[in-house]
């Protein structure tokens, strides 16, 4: 390759279905510390041989798939940034699917159908796998909150189940790629809607409650990433700082998904985490 001429290609096999997946991250009533940006025990960065192509695969929900944003998804954005920065060829495949859950993705990674096998082949051939997953698992908690209330006894079991199912996802990813791929897992800024949309659409107490649930979810995601020696990518701080920043300017008009600026921010956060280790 000529210096400074890295190239990136992209493909997408994720569904564009209009079932939203919340984005997640939060602040509990007693705010916990924000999740660290990267776990410390991740595998070494893949080093493609001259003339070869680094293969990046994105897994997850509508945040991964780029739903509700007329822009390149963050997986494609990361691939372009990486190609330019490291002067390498990068191919991105986005297998994110709107509405996907951790349990559903784990089943697909273990399944025997044609679509399941296509997904498994993508993962098996990947050098880098980037995952954003878990928000949709917690949708029942939001339903309960809207119907009356949902305290820790309501959402804790759902977060625990999400943690178990996300662990299944990473187990299967590592089995399929034989431990070859560098795996990065993101947290969320909010597992549900946030910003101005949430302030106007939801009842009193929603923002504090959703932040609490998000922080719990992020802690679970952090634990899974650490247990699997995956690199953790913190999206909470880039969107919300210590929890006091308003993310409205980074969100699409549904208040749930990132807009072009938010998507670009995620791409940069993934690149930063990738380059740090």
What report would you give on this structure?
- This protein is an alpha/beta fold and 277 residues long.
- The protein has a single domain (7-276), classed as SGNH hydrolase (Rossmann fold).
- The protein has 10 helices and 6 strands; from the N terminus they run ββααβααβααβααβαα.
- It has a 6-stranded parallel β-sheet, sandwiched between helices.
- It is globular.
- The model is unreliable at 1-5 and 14-41 (pLDDT under 50).
- InterPro entries: Ester_Hydrolysis_Enzymes, SGNH_hydro, SGNH_hydro_sf.
- Residues 1-53, 93-119 are annotated as: Disordered.
- Residues 105-119 have a biased composition (Acidic residues).
- Residues 59-264 form the SGNH hydrolase-type esterase domain.
- Residues 1-44 have a biased composition (Low complexity).
């Amino acid at each position: 390759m000529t210096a400074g001429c890295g190239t990136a290609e992209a493909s997408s096999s994720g569904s564009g279905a209009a079932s939203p997946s919340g984005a997640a991250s939060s602040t509990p009533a007693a705010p916990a510390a924000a999740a660290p940006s990267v776990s410390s025990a991740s595998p070494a960065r893949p080093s493609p041989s001259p003339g070869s192509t680094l293969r990046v695969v994105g897994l997850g929900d509508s945040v991964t798939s780029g739903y509700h944003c007329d822009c390149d998804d963050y997986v494609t954005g990361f691939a372009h940034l990486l190609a330019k920065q490291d002067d390498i060829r990068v191919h991105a495949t986005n297998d994110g699917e709107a509405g996907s859950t951790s349990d559903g993705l784990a089943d697909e990674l273990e399944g025997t159908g044609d679509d399941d096998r296509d997904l498994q082949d993508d993962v098996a051939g990947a050098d880098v796998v980037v995952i954003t997953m878990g928000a949709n698992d917690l949708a029942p908690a939001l339903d309960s909150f809207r119907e009356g209330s949902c305290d820790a006894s309501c959402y804790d079991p759902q977060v625990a189940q999400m943690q178990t199912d996300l662990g299944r996802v990473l187990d299967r990813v590592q089995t399929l790629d034989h431990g070859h791929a560098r795996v990065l897992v993101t947290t969320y800024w909010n597992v549900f809607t946030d910003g101005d949309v949430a302030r106007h659409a939801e009842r009193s107490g929603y923002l504090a409650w959703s932040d609490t649930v998000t922080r719990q979810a992020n802690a679970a995601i952090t634990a899974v990433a650490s247990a699997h020696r995956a690199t953790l990518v913190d999206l909470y701080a880039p969107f919300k700082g210590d929890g006091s920043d308003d993310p409205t300017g980074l969100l699409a008009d549904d208040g749930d998904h990132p807009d072009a600026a938010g998507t670009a921010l995620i791409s940069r956060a993934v690149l930063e985490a990738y380059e740090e280790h």
